[in-house]
Write a structure and sequence with these properties.
Blueprint lengths: L12 H38 L6 H4 L3 H9 L4 E8 L10 E10 L5 E5 L18 H9 L3 E7 L7 E11 L2 E11 H12 L6 E4 L5 E4 L23 E4 L7 E4 L7
Antiparallel strand pairs: 1-2, 1-6, 2-3, 4-5, 5-6, 7-8, 7-10, 9-10
Length: 258
């Protein structure tokens, strides 16, 4: 029995257009607050230059108010902040102004704590973000980037998605604004969208890793043999999510009992 005879939609890219747009909107809604943090970073640096001053770590700490505010707008976020390029912060080859959510206090509101990582280049335990994709891709390509999901052993020790965007001032790369998104919060939101697809569907990142699926046919965290492409023998319809994610939403003909 064909999908059409079974009352299922014909598997064309149009079938995935609406759920793909919803997934893209989820990512765009995360990038929005990051853009505000990045703009504040660039403004702070521009103000220092206009006054003939250097951007120091103390001055950069003035961003914590907007970082806290935007972290509060992202309930799935484990942390939000900026990560500076070498030399942007006076006397610092590496510097982060990154704050993590610490949970609800007696007031019922979230508390925040600044993350402290080893940035000493002489240390064997150096947290060398200058070599990490979520930093190097925005620097090299001047675009937003979605990295993961992965286990963040060096930071929150959770299954997270890191999303970053480049911060520029007069064409100079200052660093990135970014966030770590907890998959424990994001995956249920993605599953609601995927379950609206009437056939087996899987969301795959650029590294072929399964982000989420509406069937046990694909397990989150595992890799598919190759990036999905329509008519490749496994998938009948594929659409790219966009939002600089590298994600693809793919659908296949249902197996008996789906």
């Amino acid at each position: 029995m064909t999908g059409r005879e079974a009352g299922l939609p014909e598997l064309t890219p149009e079938v995935l257009a609406e759920p793909g747009a919803r997934i893209r909107a989820v990512l765009d809604d995360i990038f929005g607050p990051l853009a505000l943090v990045g703009a504040a970073f660039a403004t702070q640096r521009r103000s220092c230059r206009a006054a003939g001053d250097e951007l120091t770590a103390d001055r950069l700490s003035g961003l914590r108010g907007i970082i806290w505010q935007q972290l509060g707008q992202l309930p799935a976020a484990d942390g939000v902040g900026i990560v500076a390029a070498p030399g942007v912060v006076a006397g610092r080859d590496r510097h982060l102004e990154w704050w993590q959510r610490t949970g609800s206090g007696e007031s019922g509101t979230d508390g925040y704590a600044r993350i402290r990582l080893n940035l000493d280049p002489e240390s064997i335990d150096l947290y060398d973000y200058l070599e990490m994709d979520w930093f190097t891709v925005p620097r090299r390509e001047g675009r937003r980037y979605v990295y993961g999901p992965y286990i963040d052993f060096s930071g929150a020790d959770r299954h997270v998605l890191t999303m970053t965007l480049p911060v520029l001032d007069d064409g100079q790369f200052l660093g990135v604004a970014g966030t770590d998104i907890r998959m424990s919060h994001l995956e249920p939101e993605l599953l609601v969208i995927l379950r609206s697809v009437a056939v087996p569907a899987v969301l795959v990142n650029a590294e072929r890793r399964v982000v989420a699926a509406n069937t046990a046919r694909w397990i989150a965290g595992t890799r598919v043999p190759r990036l999905p492409a329509a008519g490749d023998g496994e998938f009948d319809a594929v659409t790219e999510i966009g939002a600089d994610s590298g994600w693809r939403l793919a659908a296949a003909a249902p197996a008996p009992g789906f």
